[in-house]
Specification:
alpha/beta; D-Maltodextrin-Binding Protein, domain 2; 2 domains; five-stranded mixed sheet; three-stranded antiparallel sheet; 13 helices; 10 strands; about 20% strand; globular; disordered N terminus
Length: about 325
């Protein structure tokens, strides 16, 4: 992986010299949207935690504006691992015909008791006080069909508001939403970590509702891959998940918090104060299952919300898509 070239090169060379590998490492191409949330923790360059990177696999990370474009990338064979939102898993299977898509691990969950939930915000000087006040207003999400978008639509529908009927949806990247709200180009933005922790945003905006209030607990992002790729590269995928869990455990340790903030800030080019109060902390961050196990019951409920909103043509049994043997094996090794 390009973020630790010297260390990775040395490890790989040593493994080959010792006869511990008879083939080049498997390149794992993974998508992500938000640094510090669904981005693979190996991106951030903390040396000495990952045991297998550069030996059995290398990692190539590609950023997307939202999870829906990852479906196209998966279908085209441009990425191998996709941290998809609950909404895009359903679209991939039903709309893109990826019946071979498999859920292999948790990335993070929204609305777990005691942890963070996404916020939908209006300007502090806005006259909007209730969801009903959004009638005939402009709201912005990161992309139609994303989990953040789906929760917004669900909340609006509860209050009698629907896209193109009495509210207007526009799309934008999360980094651009603060300026759009400040300039009164839109009336409501979707705000996720780390952007919702921006002190400048907090000074000029207030939360109208949360994702938990809209749809309850969410299996927000799940790591997925296609079955043929998994079967061909099982050992490398398990090693990657083991390294990812080791990283998660280290990043979640309060003793490492200040170093974690510096690492993520340096990589993302986002000032450290944006991360200091919440990153990988209970109460401030999303819930990351320490064993990488997704909440399939929450995921099933999320999919039912999609169906009720008219985005799915049929029910979807998410448990039939799950193959958790990869992360279960990895979790045993990561202890």
């Amino acid at each position: 992986m390009r973020f630790r070239n010297a260390m990775v090169g040395a490890l790989a060379a040593g493994a080959l010299f010792a006869g511990g590998a008879d083939a080049d490492p498997v390149k794992l191409r993974m998508g992500y949207v938000v640094p510090g949330a669904d981005a693979p923790l190996l991106m951030f360059g903390k040396q000495g935690i990952a045991k297998h990177e550069g030996a059995s696999y290398t990692l190539e990370a590609t950023r997307f504006q939202g999870t829906p474009p990852m479906i196209t990338a998966l279908a085209a064979g441009e990425i191998d691992l996709a941290p998809l939102a609950f909404s895009t898993v359903s679209f991939a299977v039903q709309n893109a015909g990826m019946s071979d898509l498999r859920i292999i691990a948790d990335v993070f969950q929204d609305g777990v008791e005691g942890y963070y939930t996404n916020e939908y915000m209006v300007a502090k000087d806005s006259p909007i006080k209730t969801v009903e006040d959004l009638k005939d207003k402009i709201v912005v999400s990161n992309g139609a069909g994303s989990a953040v978008d789906m929760a917004m639509r669900a909340m609006l529908k509860k209050h009698g508001l629907e896209d193109k009927r009495n509210v207007t949806f526009v799309e934008a990247g999360f980094p651009n939403m603060k300026a759009m709200l400040a300039e009164h180009k839109v009336d409501l933005i979707s705000s996720v970590r780390p952007f919702s922790a921006d002190p400048g945003l907090r000074d000029m905006a207030r939360t109208l509702f949360t994702q938990k209030e809209a749809i309850g607990r969410s299996e927000m992002i799940i790591l997925t891959a296609r079955q043929a790729f998994l079967a061909k590269n099982r050992a490398a995928v398990v090693d990657f998940l083991e390294d990812s869990l080791r990283d998660l455990h280290w990043y979640s340790d309060p003793a490492n918090h200040d170093e974690v903030v510096k690492i993520v800030s340096d990589y993302s080019k986002i000032p450290a104060p944006v991360f200091q109060s919440w990153l990988f902390t209970k109460g401030g961050d999303f819930y990351h299952d320490p064993n990488g196990m997704p909440d399939l019951d929450a995921l099933q409920s999320n999919v039912a919300t999609q169906r009720d909103l008219g985005f799915l043509k049929a029910d979807l049994d998410v448990k039939s898509l799950a193959d958790l043997s990869y992360v279960q094996e990895a979790a045993k090794k990561a202890r």
